[in-house]
Amino acid sequence: MSIQSVVKRIVKPVVGERGWQALRRIKQRTAGRRPAPPAPKKPTGVAAISDDLCKLATHFKTDKWGTHKYAQHYQRYLQHLKDEEFNLLEIGIGGYNRAGQGGASLRMWKHFFPRAQIFGMDIQDKSFVDEDRITTFVGDQSDPESLLAIQEKIGRLDVIIDDGSHRSPHVVTTFHTLFPLLTDGGIYAVEDTQSSYWPEWMGSEDLDSPDTSMGLLKRLTDGLNYEEFVDDDYEPTYFDRNIRSVHFFHNLVIIEKGVNAEGSNKRQALKARYNTSPASTA
Ligand SMILES: C[S@@+](CC[C@H](N)C(=O)[O-])C[C@H]1O[C@@H](n2cnc3c(N)ncnc32)[C@H](O)[C@@H]1O
């Protein structure tokens, strides 16, 4: 006698005909069903916060969130690179000349961008920060040759963050040297622009000073509109032609590189100035 017949002889008298049929239907419905797959494991530790740059900044103890409020803006302007393979260079690794200190932001970037190569440059040797996907270089951002030598070793630059000396002449030199080498569509950020207003930090109290970092960055906004200038002899600069947007925040500026050539309607709008009527061109 089979097991099924034994079960039937014992169970059926107890549950009755209807109950027995109901049990058969349940058996048919569940027959051949695969056991439910185990629920995916919830990430723990740093992996659990790897989509949230503010939490990562706090975890790794960089002042990009807390003292400053930069992480929220980076989250917005770098989100599109989250799962991309690309190169990020940050100038200023942290810790100054204190032994064994620094690297907080490089670790934050590494965990936010799981496929990116993270490079850091500092005037101090920070090689103790080196690990898988993090490479550091010693270099002085006030020296174009030093910047170019490091760029040569890295190759393609997709994101550049200037969090180094925060001295206006250094910020300006670094921007002039590295921005032309940034890839099309790349992002360039300048942190701690407050120092631009501090003479003690090689800045100036003069808001219109052309020599400060904010002086340079503010001029870029006019460059966005160079096609509207009425001076026909105006020669657009490299920055005019290759900056698509400039975003100003408290102490942080984020610049998007890209071809800036949308054209202008100034010849239609300023007919008298440009003498574009058929009679005047005869
Ligand atoms: C504010 S800390 C960087 C903090 C780090 N980016 C973070 O968010 O965790 C500034 C770093 O810039 C470095 N620095 C200062 N002058 C520099 C220069 N001329 N060139 C390159 N690095 C410089 C300092 O040694 C210091 O470690």
Give a topology summary.
Blueprint: H1 3-30, H2 53-60, H3 71-78, E1 87-91, H4 104-112, E2 117-122, E3 134-138, H5 144-154, E4 157-162, H6 168-178, E5 182-191, H7 213-223, H8 238-242, E6 243-249, E7 252-257, H9 266-269, H10 271-274, H11 278-281
Parallel strand pairs: 1-2, 1-4, 2-3, 4-5
Antiparallel strand pairs: 5-7, 6-7
Helix pairs in contact: 2-4, 5-6
Bound molecules: S-adenosylmethionine (SAM).
Summarize the structure.
With 282 residues, the chain is of the alpha/beta class. The protein contains 11 helices and 7 strands. Helix 2 runs antiparallel to helix 4 (104-112) and helix 5 (144-154) packs across helix 6.
Describe the structure.
By secondary structure, the chain is α/β, with parallel strands linked by helices. The chain has two domains: 1-32, no CATH class; 46-267, Rossmann fold (3-Layer(aba) Sandwich), CATH 3.40.50. The chain is built from eleven helices and seven strands. The protein has helices spanning 3-30, 53-60, 71-78, 104-112, 144-154, 168-178, 213-223, 238-242, 266-269, 271-274, 278-281, and strands spanning 87-91, 117-122, 134-138, 157-162, 182-191, 243-249, 252-257. A seven-stranded mixed sheet has the order 3-2-1-4-5-7-6, sandwiched between helices. Strand 6 (243-249) and strand 7 form a beta hairpin. Helix 2 packs antiparallel against helix 4 and helix 5 (144-154) crosses helix 6 (168-178). The relative contact order is 0.09. The model has no long low-confidence stretch (mean pLDDT 94). S-adenosylmethionine (SAM) binds at residues 62-64, 90-96, 102, 104-105, 121-124, 140-142, 163-165, 170.
